[in-house]
Amino acid sequence: MRSLSMYDISRLNSRIHIVESLNWHIMGWKAAQKLIHHWKILRGDNVMIIRGKDRGETGTIKRVIRSQNRVIVEGKNLVKKHIKQGQGHEGGIFTVEAPLHVSNVQVVDPVTGKPCKVGIMYQEDGTKVRVSRGIGASGSIIPRPEILKIRTTPRPTIAGPKDTPLELVQEKTYDAKNGKGMPDL
């Protein structure tokens, strides 16, 4: 493995905003730069397909593939998939939903029913909401999909083996007035 030059370090620092968990060394810098970092389309949103063979049709987003900037719309963009027979499953020709690029779908305005852009706005109480933007948009709040409010795995109610006991958490280990609990430096 070669050492990094000052030029390489400056290039790395300029790309710090790219999510570190991505395998940029596999997919390349250019592809990693084109990834959307702040997604405004969520799973469960009602969207309209604006380009492609299903143009003009509406559907619900089934899955969001953030590593590829793609979404799967329920019942839309159907393609035939030839699957070879294997151990435990039959083969044949199946109809499956293919992913669409996120630029080919737009969220449907809840008031007008037309496709619109999504903007972010903060309400008076400080909560962040999505609003409809663009030409012909009503500017109304786009509600968060109900499917996102349901947790797939419920939060544990009892302490597990790796959880810190409540007594140790509530124990006072530092006193600001006396300086008790400060490490000796």
From TrEMBL:
Cross-referenced CDD domains, in alphabetical order?
Answer: KOW_RPL26 (cd06089)
Cellular component GO terms held in the UniProt record: ribonucleoprotein complex; ribosome
One Pfam match, given by its short name, reads ribosomal_L24
User: What are the record keywords, sorted?
Assistant: Ribonucleoprotein, Ribosomal protein
Q: One biological-process term from Gene Ontology?
A: translation
Gene3D superfamilies, alphabetized: 2.30.30.30
One GO MF term on file is: structural constituent of ribosome
Q: Which InterPro entries match?
A: KOW, Rib_uL2_dom2, Ribosomal_uL24, Ribosomal_uL24_C, Ribosomal_uL24_CS, Ribosomal_uL24_KOW, Translation_prot_SH3-like_sf
Which residues belong to any copy of the KOW domain?
A: 40-67
The Swiss-Prot or TrEMBL record describes its family as follows:
Belongs to the universal ribosomal protein uL24 family.
PANTHER family referenced in this protein's UniProt entry, alphabetically: MITOCHONDRIAL RIBOSOMAL PROTEIN L24
How is this protein named in the record?
KOW domain-containing protein
